[in-house]
Write a structure and sequence with these properties.
The structure holds 2 protein chains of 2 kinds. By secondary structure, chain A is an alpha+beta fold. In chain A, the strands form 3 sheets. A 3-stranded antiparallel β-sheet of chain A has the order 1-2-3. Chain A has a 3-stranded antiparallel β-sheet with strand order 6-7-8. A two-stranded antiparallel ribbon of chain A has the order 4-5. Chain A is globular. The N terminus of chain A is likely disordered. By secondary structure, chain B is an alpha/beta fold. Chain B has a domain of about 100 residues: NADH:ubiquinone oxidoreductase Nqo5 subunit (Beta Polymerase, domain 2, 2-Layer Sandwich). The chains are: A alpha+beta, B alpha/beta. Chain B: Keywords: Transport.
């Protein structure tokens, strides 16, 4: 009890003492080892059952991706850049490839554009299923952990056929995709996606219509439309608060303009709405994949040949895509070298983190997992 | 490599794609502020370079008159040969549907110290947190990674780096990765 022995000792780092000088307020560390925190620490100050202060402390899985990118060529950056979110690796490489193509002035073949869309939508399903499994288990619903984990394998198998790897695909390259699909891929993909969609519908019976889930998540952690805009949140958090903003619709990249899908928007802004949007998005992903399989050219080149160690000009680009966690932007500064001079990755998880203290302050401690995981937060991606 | 059969690299010319909205946005900024430099106007992307004394006025104008309402990204770039560190705010808009494609990059520069003392650097910029609350965590990241102190930010603490980090800010160019 160092703090009691010397209450004015300012040397103590925040959160390292269990009790503060004020007897009524207790400081509680959630994480980084706590299973409910992910790879991060949340420093909570609680008054009885209510959270009065919340200070998120990420950084436990910071890997210096941005610094590493400054030492590697545009092509050799690909495998390490997807590490922050291995379940959604196609979507994190997407803005990088779009940006490098803009820097080098590359035109992507038509078939590659469709393959990119299919791969990134399959990846979105893989990521969302993983997130949904974690969301389920932290609300004490272990069936909801097992079902998405099992159904996720279907999509992983498809991606394995397509790219050769179960996760960390390194499938996107500037100028196209790495390889073409194997024969019969279209038929297998269509069959599995149809089955996957049928399984998704069953999640409503066991999870989304479950009165226990509804009582735990309805009206907890309400983020108003104004606050969602002011805090600059993105992705499912933003769309659950009634803002219709999906980059696939608003700033279409590759062939999203030609595909038939809609944006899911809910007005409630509570944890329930935030947890429902990614599930609804998976139905749209299935729709996009089916449409893309139909419209995709049946043959043709899937990548253009690059010169060895291509150099960018003396310019900069900012490109963004809609990932599983919202807008994912990359700011690439080039100074005529084969390596980027600076690569800034702006990820949805990091942008949504600012909503956490806003939502948790005033909330009951027992509601913390429901609010925290509904933010669709991926600690490894936020730390980069 | 067998599937790579086209060797042609096509250079695209995007000057024709610049819309009237791009031009009117950049014109309204340059009309209002004479010292502001419009670095480029590309399709849906505008970059504005301002002096650090003016950045709060320009940012308020961009928010109130041009309806950009949130920051997508705040990134710092180190230029040791100019003895400057540049901070780029990428601003977007949710409320104005006509601006949903647009990203406005607002850049400013601070002088850079050769030998920064950790946490005690005189590289100072005004914080935009009062104009755009969404920059709050981004500025904290920029502070620890490049050593830019944001004046007016209530929470200039480290975010991702360990509390006992005693080296120079890691995204400065003179911080080298071992063996590279």
């Amino acid at each position: 009890m160092t703090s009691q022995a010397n209450p004015k000792n300012k040397e103590i780092l925040p959160g390292l003492q269990l009790e503060t000088v004020d007897d009524k307020i207790m400081t509680l560390n959630v994480g980084p080892q706590h299973p409910g925190s992910g790879h991060m620490r949340i420093i909570l100050k609680i008054d009885g059952d209510y959270i009065v202060h919340c200070d998120p402390d990420p950084g436990y899985v910071h890997r210096g991706e941005e610094k590493m990118a400054e030492y590697r060529n545009y092509i050799t950056n690909i495998p390490h850049l997807e590490r922050p979110v291995i379940h959604d690796s196609c979507n994190i490489l997407y803005p990088y490839c779009l940006g490098v193509e803009e820097l080098l002035g590359l035109e992507v073949p038509e078939r590659a554009k469709y393959l990119r869309v299919i791969a990134s939508e399959l990846n979105r399903c893989v990521y969302t299923q993983y997130w949904l499994a974690i969301y389920g288990i932290f609300l004490g619903h272990s069936t909801m952990f097992m079902w998405p984990m099992g159904d996720r394998e279907l999509v992983i198998d498809l991606l394995e056929k397509m790219t050769g790897a179960r996760v960390t695909h390194s499938y996107f390259v500037p100028g196209g995709v790495r390889n073409d699909t194997p024969p019969n891929f279209e038929d297998v993909c269509l069959r599995q996606v149809n089955y996957f969609e049928k399984r998704l519908k069953e999640y409503a019976d066991i999870f989304y219509d479950n009165p226990i889930l509804i009582s735990r998540t309805k009206d907890t952690g309400i983020l108003s439309r104004e606050d969602a805009i002011k805090l600059g949140t993105t992705g499912s958090v933003l769309r659950a608060s009634g803002v219709d903003f999906d980059i696939r619709k608003k700033e279409p990249y590759d062939v999203y303009e030609e595909l038939d899908f809609q944006t899911n928007v809910l007005k409630e802004g509570d944890s329930y709405a935030r947890s429902k949007i990614p599930w609804l998005d998976m139905f749209e992903s299935c729709r996009i994949i089916r449409d893309a399989l139909q419209k995709m050219p049946k043959s043709g080149s899937v990548r253009i040949k690059l010169k060895p160690n291509p150099k960018g000009g003396d310019t900069e680009v900012y490109r963004r895509v809609e990932s599983g966690r919202g807008s994912l932007g990359m700011h690439i500064v080039s100074r005529g070298k084969p390596q980027p001079y600076r690569l800034k990755i702006s990820v949805g998880s990091f942008r949504n983190l600012i909503a956490m203290p806003h939502l948790l302050t005033g909330e009951m401690l027992g509601n913390m997992p429901a609010v925290y995981w509904s933010l669709n937060y991926w600690p490894v991606e936020a730390d980069r | 490599m067998s599937s790579a059969d086209s060797t042609e690299i096509v250079k695209t010319d995007d000057s024709a794609l610049i819309s009237d909205l791009d031009k009117s946005l950049s014109d309204s900024i340059s009309k209002k502020f004479s010292n502001v430099e419009i670095a480029y106007v590309k399709p849906n992307r505008i970059r504005v370079n301002v002096k650090k004394e003016e950045i709060i006025d320009v940012a308020s104008f961009i928010r109130d008159e041009l309806h950009f309402d949130h920051a997508e990204s705040v990134g710092g770039v180190d230029y040791p040969e100019d003895k400057q560190i540049e901070v780029v705010y990428h601003l977007g808009s949710y409320t104005d549907p006509s601006l949903s494609k647009h990203i406005l990059a607002l850049a400013t520069r601070a002088t850079r110290e050769d030998n920064p003392r950790p946490g005690n650097d005189s590289t100072i910029l005004p914080s935009l947190r009062d104009v755009f609350p969404s920059v709050s965590f981004h500025e904290r990241e920029c502070f620890e990674m490049l050593g830019v102190y944001f004046d007016g930010h209530p929470d200039n603490r480290r975010l991702l780096l360990p509390e006992d980090w005693a080296d120079i800010p890691p995204l400065r160019k003179d911080f080298r990765i071992k063996g590279r």
